[in-house]
Amino acid sequence: MKLARSFRAVPALGSGLLVMLADTDAGNVVTAAQAGAQWGYRLLPLLLLLTPVLYVVQELTVRLGIATRRGYGELVREHFGKGAAWLAAGSLIVATIGSLITELTAIAGIGELYGLSRVVTLPLSVAVLMAVVATGSYRRAERVTLWIGACSLAFLAVAWLAHPDPAVMLRHAVDIPVRDKSFLYLASALIGAVFNPWMIFYQQAAVVEKGLSDEQYRAERRDTAIGAVLTQLLTGAVLIAMAATVSSSGMPRTLTSVGEISLTLADVLGNPHVAPLFSVGVIGAAMVAAVVASLALAWGLGEVTGYRRSLEMHPFSARWFYGVYAACIAGCAAVVWYVPNLVWLNIAAQALNALLLPIVIGFLVTLAVKALPAPYRLRRSSLCLLVPVCMVVCVAGLVGVIAGII
């Protein structure tokens, strides 16, 4: 009996882990690196505290997907109308474009670090991203993307090579400059890096696409929990590596691109293997995020407009779905090609996500109350805890962005 249940749970594995690996994208890496370089370990407690909140938010998409068999955009349209659905879709479009430009800028920057022009790296990246969805199956696309995402585990090795000091970690954990505007801005950018609109759209759509059943609910929850812990560990590893090297060395603390971060780490540590290791991690993370964000946009717009959307369909049967996926990747690659100096967008895109957070999480929590059937409905005690926590996170993100701008 237990063996049979285990086999039934296998299809559930993957989407939760994949969306979390995508969360450790290039913008996330640059934001975490800047936080570590400028403020040492002081923002590490925030990352750790956000782990359970990230799990709870993404777990709601699992509940909604399995219980209703509908995507996030479709549910928003059904319960709040077309205007609200387009508001949610608008946040998805903005977040996806910002993320894609960030990922492709990072890939181009890594290529140039090793003498490869973006004339080579950008078309190659677009070709790989298109090949992933040409597998003709969601499960195959998911497996390929997970293997690419495994490259981001290199961040853990980089943090280990940096030899962080536990005593300094503890000292920084209680030395929080809450009145410093640049600290608050980076804190809000980290919040925006952790919670991304396309993550919510993607995981719920993936659950529906895979046709997960009630029996696979627990397995998908475990997958999501493991992914939430892993992505925060990877982001924390980047912050730790920079805090242990740049922050404690007295070097310049403004690092805006993955190329700068990679070379700085290698220089401070005196280890020639660090730069390639970090570069591999960034490329893996950026490629996974590009796939997930683009699929989220293609699914999300389909949920709002009603066009056919599935990786199981032939491109001629789902022209709009594949067309949106291809257009957003090719369009953002063209922007990066013709406007090379976009490194400023790395942290700005994460801060923008913090501003969009109340929209997507607000709809998500409301859907959890209105759309879930009794077996999946949150207990009153869980709801009473969830709502204030989500409000605190959203307000903290907004306050940090506003304080940093003023």
Describe the fold and architecture.
The chain has helices at 2-9, 15-23, 26-39, 44-68, 72-80, 82-113, 118-133, 138-149, 154-161, 166-173, 181-194, 197-210, 217-249, 258-269, 274-305, 319-338, 345-370, 380-405. It is mainly alpha-helical and 406 residues long. It has one domain (2-6, 13-405): Amino acid/polyamine transporter I, CATH 1.20.1740.10. Helix 2 (15-23) packs across helix 15, helix 3 crosses helix 13 (217-249) and helix 5 (72-80) runs parallel beside helix 15 (274-305). The longest helix has 33 residues, at 217-249. It is globular, with a radius of gyration of 20 Å. The N and C termini lie far apart (61 Å). One of its GO terms (cellular component) is plasma membrane. InterPro entries: NRAMP_fam. This is Divalent metal cation transporter. It is a multi-pass membrane protein.
